[in-house]
Amino acid sequence: MPQTLTETVAFNLDKYLRDLKPEVEAALDASIAVIYPEKIYESMRYSLMAGGKRLRPILCLAACELLGGDRISAMPTACAMEMVHTMSLIHDDLPAMDNDDYRRGKLTNHKVYGDDIAILAGDALLAYAFEFIAGQTKGVPAERILKVIAHLGHAVAATGLVGGQVVDLECEGKPDVTAETLTFIHIHKTAALLESCVICGALLAGANDTDIKRLSTYANNIGLAFQIIDDILDITATSEQLGKTAGKDLAAHKVTYPSLWGIETSQQKAEDLVAQAKAQLISYGDAALPLMALADYITARKN
Hints:
Layout: H1 13-31, H2 38-48, H3 55-66, H4 71-92, E1 102-103, E2 106-107, H5 109-113, H6 115-136, H7 142-156, H8 161-171, H9 179-204, H10 209-236, H11 239-242, H12 248-251, H13 257-261, H14 263-279, H15 289-300
Antiparallel strand pairs: 1-2
């Protein structure tokens, strides 16, 4: 019988994350060895292994298992998602972008290794992500792997993350940014990679067009909700809680969801997006419990 939205409380997300996160950490740790020239590999590993929620690889694995796929075969793609995400963080923190000194409670990559190595570390992680999917994925038909690589490329390029970042930079300091423009930025800058995590996991398991449509809606909704909560936490949380500098958006005169709607309305919109995301999963029954619980986690998180 289909799972109702209120029944997700029966799923123990804490246990799920405790079981799965060490597998992701071990796979990431094994993915990059330090060889000559050591500095670049050390820089890549410094940020890749800096901790974090590992939400993106876990979403990838959960989506694969939703459709009956094997999470072992999805692990290289899950790791690649974290490599791409780490690249985006390294580059976001650079002086030419957000100019931040801390990430996950540690000095940012460029503060440790310099701007030049940080840029190259990000470049190397991005390139290696695609190599890792192509070279390490086992037991999956080649045409599925090709679809995964194409989807991830689309999510990162000017059609996705890069395009969203460009519009974000262009809007910085402008007082007349509309909600529509802000949503464009975050559908591309934030949601696109989260969507790719979910869709690529599903593709590895042989998702059909109906699955892709449902999961794309799910992922885009949780991606926007994630950004709304990020904007709220930038105002309400401390730097210690966030592991990065709080109040950066206000200092940079960036338009955010709370600046347009206020904190209370922004929180409600995030919760509405999560409810709409979960509604896409009802027909999958118990198999969707991890993805439903992860959607709830988006609005409940404190960092």
